[in-house]
Amino acid sequence: MDKKCPSCNKDISSDIFELHQVHCERFLTKCDECKEMIPKANLENHKKELHAKLKCSYCQKQFEEKEIGIHKAICENRPRPCLFCGAVMELNELIKHEEDCGNRTDECEACGKYVTIKNMPQHLVECFEEIENRAPSVRKRKMSEEKKPNKKRLRKNKG
Ligand SMILES: [Zn+2]
Ligand SMILES: [Zn+2]
Ligand SMILES: [Zn+2]
Ligand SMILES: [Zn+2]
Ligand SMILES: [Zn+2]
To answer: Which GO molecular-function terms appear in the entry (predicted)?
Structure first.
């Protein structure tokens, strides 16, 4: 008959059970990471192989091998693309880079003015508005009226 060893949960035949149990308690130890019984002499290796802590290269924190992939995907220092040019880099670099990158100037395709890249989206909106306002068909009455929100376009009856 086999008996279950309480230390290692293995079925051990009863004729060596006591021997085993003594051996088990003496030479095995529970791995605190995975709760397996590991020979004490192997524990270090076991931990190194199965529970080795790896350093996240982004934040320098340590994680188990099986966790590091998940962590790296959500690490707050993980590389992200620059808002302006799309270059991917780690956060600490990116902060500096975006500052410089956003302050580069580029020529507005619509008006030809040089505008900083970070202001370009805003500029383009204004620029297109201005171009529309300048369009000859809507030009006449605008001069004195300034910018009112035009709910309805009033037409004066003439003649
Ligand atoms: Zn055992
Ligand atoms: Zn373990
Ligand atoms: Zn990290
Ligand atoms: Zn950039
Ligand atoms: Zn422009």
So the answer is: zinc ion binding
